[in-house]
Amino acid sequence: MKTQVVDVKNVKKFYGKKGENQSIALNGVSFSIHEGEFVGIMGPSGSGKTTLLNVISTLDHATDGVVQIAGTDITIMKQDQLSDFRSQKLGFIFQDFNLLDNLSIYENIALPLSLQGVPSREIGPKVKKVAETLGISAILSKYPSEVSGGQKQRCAAARALVHEPAIILGDEPTGALDSKNAASLLEAMTNLNDEQGVSIMMVTHDPLSASYCRRILFIQDGELYKEIHRTSTRDAFYKEILDVLAGLGTQKA
Amino acid sequence: MLFKLSMSGLKSKLKDYLVLLVGLVISVSIFYLFQTLALNRAFIEANSVISQIQFVFHAGSVLLAIITFFYILYANSFLLSLRQKEFGMYMMLGAKKRKITVLMFIETIVIGFVSLIIGIALGIGLSQVIGQLLMKELEFTAGGYHAFYVPSIVVTCIFFLVLFMLSAILNSIKLSRVSVLQLVHSDVQAENSFVKGKKTFGIAFLSIILLAIGYAAMLNMATLQQLGIIISLVTTTSGTYLLFMSVLPLIIKKLKANKKRFEKGINAFTFAQLNFRINSLTKVLATVAMLVALGAGAISVGMAFKNNVMIMVEGFNTYDVVTHNPTAEEKNILADIKFDEKYEYHYKVDDQFVYYTKEDLEKQRPIIQTFQDEKSFRKKEKVTGELPVGSIVGLEDQQSGLAVPEEWAFALDTIQPYYLYPDHKIKIIDQKMFGDVKGKEGIAIIGKSDDFQAYMMEWKKIDELQQKKYGNDTNMYSKYRSYQDMYGFASGTIFMGFFLGIAFLAMMASCLMFKILSGATKDISRYQMLRKIGVRSTLLTKSIYKELFLVFLFPAIVGIIHVLVGMEMFSFILIAPYFRVWLPIVIFTVIYASYYCITVQLYKGIVFPKTN
Ligand SMILES: Nc1ncnc2c1ncn2[C@@H]1O[C@H](COP(=O)(O)OP(=O)(O)OP(=O)(O)O)[C@@H](O)[C@H]1O
Ligand SMILES: [Mg+2]
C-alpha cells in the first residue's frame, strides 16, 4: 500500500464567533488521499469545498481536527514552514485565478521556480514546456489584463504545474474553460498523475471534468456524504457521477 | 439615492480617503507656512543678510506653486481612481453619466474645501510651533514674524481654491471621457506604457543639458545675479523632471533585463512592482528630488550661515579669552574651563610704556593669524621670529630698527588690547631690565579653550566682570562680543533657512508617503496571492524594503547633488559655504532614512493582514 499524502481526521471549520450566528463550513470531515491518486471533490454550492481545500492547502486553520500532509501535521507547523511547504510541495489552481497583474504571463508562471532558486537558464525551457501543454505559448509575453478568462485559468494551471509539486490542489480548474481547453488541461493533469505520480485533488461542479478522477468524494453541508471509485471506463464513471448528483439534488430538495 | 450610495462607497474606503486627506492637508499647511515668510516683506528684509532676499522668496514661491500644482493634480487623480470602479458599476446598472460626473465634481470640491480649512489651521499651528522653537533654539527674537498672517491665509485660500476647482473639472472631464468598461476594469489596467527607445534617449540627453545649464548658472550666480536665479530655477526644475521621466524607467528596465538577477527569488515581483508603476512614480519622484534639494538646501544654507559666524569670529580672534589682572571671581570661572592653551605674561606700566619681557613672550609664543590672502584667511601659526630687546610696538619709523616685528605686533595686539592703555606704547625688555622698571605690575592672561561654543555662559560672565573691572567708559572688545555681533547679523537668515528646510522636508515626506500609501490598497491582493503560493512573509518584507529603498534612493541622490552644486551660489557671501556641509547632509539622511522606515511600516500595515 502506498503512503498517504493527505490524511484528514475529523476536521471542523466554523466561521464567526462562538455562540452568535456561527456558520459551520466543515463539520467533522475525515478521509485520506494516497500518493499518486487523482481525487475529485463534488458537492452543492456552499457545501464547504473551498473551505476544505483551504484547510488542506494550509491557507486556513481548521477549528478542530488533524490534517496531515506527507506525514507532517500541518496544524502544528510554523508560519515559515507552511510557506516553504506550500512553495515546494503544493501547486494551486484557485477558483479566482490569482495571477499577479503586474507580472507578464511568462513571469507569473516562472515565479514558483524563481522562488525555489532554480537557475535562470533552466526556467525558460520549463515554462515553455508547460505553456505548450496548455496551449498558451502565444500569450506568454502578455499581461493578465490582456488575456481572456479561460487563458488566465490555464496560466494559473501552468503556474501550479510548472514546479512539479507533490500534490496539486485545484478549485474548479476548468470552471472558465470551453470543453476543448478543459480537456487539454485535464489531460495534462492526468499525464502528470500517470507518468510522474503527482497526486491531485480537485474541486469541480462539472461531471465531465470529474470523470477524469479516479475517486470522487461528495460533500454536503460540511459533511462527507458519499464516495465513489472509478472502476471501468470514463464514460461509465461519468454516468455514475450523474446518478449521484441527481440523488444529491433530490435529497436536498 | 445615488448620493447615499456614493457615501457608503466613501465609507468603505475610509483608509484611502484618510491618506488622501492627510496628503492634501499637509500640502496646504506647508504652502501656508512658506507664505507666512514670503509675504511678510518687512520681516524678511529686516532679518536677512542677502540683499536679494525678496526675489529669492518670489522664486521660491513660484517653485513651490509648481510642485504643489503637480501634487494636487496627482492627489485628485488618486481620488478619481478610488471611485472609478464604483462609478462604473453604477453606470452599468443604469445611472446617468451626467449625474456621476456631477457627483465626482462635488466630491473633489468638498474634499478640497475640507483639507483647505484643516490645512490652514494646521499651518497656523505649525508656523507658531516651529517659529517659536527655532527662535528659542537660535536665541533669535524675530520681531514682526506672525504665525497668523492674513495675507498668507488669503493667498493660500485663493491658490488652492483655484487648484481644486481645476482638478474637479479635470476629474469630471476624465470621467466623462472613459467608457463604462474601462471604469469597471480600471483597477486591473497595467500602467506600463514606456516612452520608447530613441525618444527616451533624446529626452534623457535634453535633461542632462538642462541640468548642466542650471548648474552652470548656479556656479556663476555672482555675475548672473537675478537672471541666474531665474535660469537655474527653470532649467534645474525641468531638467530634473525630464531626467526622472526618461532615465528612471531606463534604469529599472535595465535592472529587469538582467535575467539572472531578475529570475532569482522574489526579485521578479519586486522589479515588476517597480516597473509597473514607474510611470506614475517618475513625476512624484522628481518632485521629491526637488523638495529634497530645497529642504536639504535650505537647512545647509542655514547651517552654513551659522558656521560662517564661527569662521568669521575665529578669523578675527584666535584666543577665546583675554583678561588682565583677573579678580577672584574671574579666576574661579577660568578654573572650570578646559584650555588647550593658556599663557600668563607679566608686565609693568609706567607713564609712557607697557613693558613685556622678551623671555616671557618667547617662552610662551602665541598663535597668530596670517592674513596673506583671502584663501588663507583661517591659517594660523605660532609666532616664530625673535623679539629684539628694546623694540617698541607701533613705532612709525621702521628704519630705526627698534620696531617690533610684524608677527609679534599682531600677537601683542591680542595680549595687550588697545583699549586698556590707549595712550601707551608697548616696549619689549629683558628680564633684568624688567626688575628695574618702576611701575604698576600686572598680569595678562590669554586662553584658548577646547571648544569656544561650549563655554558661552562662562565667556559672557567674564565679559561682564571685565567690563565692571575696566569701567563702563572702556570700549571693550572680546571674542564673545564679536560672536554676538556676527550671530545677531546672521541669525535671521539662519532662522529662515531652518524654517524653510523643515517645511520643505515635511512636504517631501508627505509627498512620498502619499504616493506610496495611495498605491498600497491595490497591492493587498498581490501580496495575499504571493503568500498563498508559499512565499515566506520574511521574503515579502524584504521585497518591500528593497522596492521602497530604490524608490527612496533616486530622488535623494539627485536632490543631494543639487544641494552640493547649489551651495556654491552662496560663496559670494559666505567664506566657506562647504565647511561642514556633511553635517546637514547627515542630518537629512537620518531624517530621510526614518521616513523610509516609517513608510515601510505603514505600507506593511496596509498590505499584510493583521496576524491574529
Ligand atoms: N470567510 C468566511 N466567513 C464566513 N463564512 C464563510 C466564509 N467562507 C465561507 N463561508 C461559508 O462557509 C460555507 C462553505 O463555503 P465554501 O466556500 O467552502 O463553499 P463551496 O463549497 O466552495 O461553494 P462553491 O461551490 O459555491 O464555491 C458557506 O456557507 C459559506 O457561506
Ligand atoms: Mg468554492
UniProtKB/TrEMBL annotation, chain A:
<dbReference type="Pfam" id="PF00005">
    <property type="entry name" value="ABC_tran"/>
</dbReference>
<keyword id="KW-0067">ATP-binding</keyword>
<keyword id="KW-0547">Nucleotide-binding</keyword>
<dbReference type="InterPro" id="IPR003593">
    <property type="entry name" value="AAA+_ATPase"/>
</dbReference>
<dbReference type="GO" id="GO:0005524">
    <property type="term" value="F:ATP binding"/>
</dbReference>
<dbReference type="InterPro" id="IPR003439">
    <property type="entry name" value="ABC_transporter-like_ATP-bd"/>
</dbReference>
<keyword id="KW-0813">Transport</keyword>
<dbReference type="InterPro" id="IPR027417">
    <property type="entry name" value="P-loop_NTPase"/>
</dbReference>
<protein>
    <submittedName>
        <fullName>ABC transporter ATP-binding protein</fullName>
    </submittedName>
</protein>
<dbReference type="InterPro" id="IPR017911">
    <property type="entry name" value="MacB-like_ATP-bd"/>
</dbReference>
<feature type="domain" description="ABC transporter">
    <location>
        <begin position="6"/>
        <end position="246"/>
    </location>
</feature>
<comment type="similarity">
    <text>Belongs to the ABC transporter superfamily.</text>
</comment>
TrEMBL record, chain B:
<feature type="domain" description="ABC3 transporter permease C-terminal">
    <location>
        <begin position="61"/>
        <end position="179"/>
    </location>
</feature>
<feature type="transmembrane region" description="Helical">
    <location>
        <begin position="17"/>
        <end position="35"/>
    </location>
</feature>
<keyword id="KW-0813">Transport</keyword>
<protein>
    <submittedName>
        <fullName>ABC transporter permease</fullName>
    </submittedName>
</protein>
<feature type="transmembrane region" description="Helical">
    <location>
        <begin position="284"/>
        <end position="305"/>
    </location>
</feature>
<feature type="transmembrane region" description="Helical">
    <location>
        <begin position="201"/>
        <end position="221"/>
    </location>
</feature>
<dbReference type="InterPro" id="IPR027022">
    <property type="entry name" value="ABC_permease_BceB-typ"/>
</dbReference>
<dbReference type="InterPro" id="IPR003838">
    <property type="entry name" value="ABC3_permease_C"/>
</dbReference>
<feature type="transmembrane region" description="Helical">
    <location>
        <begin position="486"/>
        <end position="517"/>
    </location>
</feature>
<feature type="transmembrane region" description="Helical">
    <location>
        <begin position="146"/>
        <end position="170"/>
    </location>
</feature>
<feature type="transmembrane region" description="Helical">
    <location>
        <begin position="227"/>
        <end position="252"/>
    </location>
</feature>
<keyword id="KW-0472">Membrane</keyword>
<comment type="similarity">
    <text>Belongs to the ABC-4 integral membrane protein family.</text>
</comment>
<feature type="transmembrane region" description="Helical">
    <location>
        <begin position="548"/>
        <end position="575"/>
    </location>
</feature>
<dbReference type="InterPro" id="IPR052536">
    <property type="entry name" value="ABC-4_Integral_Memb_Prot"/>
</dbReference>
<dbReference type="Pfam" id="PF02687">
    <property type="entry name" value="FtsX"/>
</dbReference>
<feature type="transmembrane region" description="Helical">
    <location>
        <begin position="581"/>
        <end position="603"/>
    </location>
</feature>
<keyword id="KW-1003">Cell membrane</keyword>
<keyword id="KW-1133">Transmembrane helix</keyword>
<feature type="transmembrane region" description="Helical">
    <location>
        <begin position="55"/>
        <end position="79"/>
    </location>
</feature>
<feature type="transmembrane region" description="Helical">
    <location>
        <begin position="100"/>
        <end position="126"/>
    </location>
</feature>
<keyword id="KW-0812">Transmembrane</keyword>
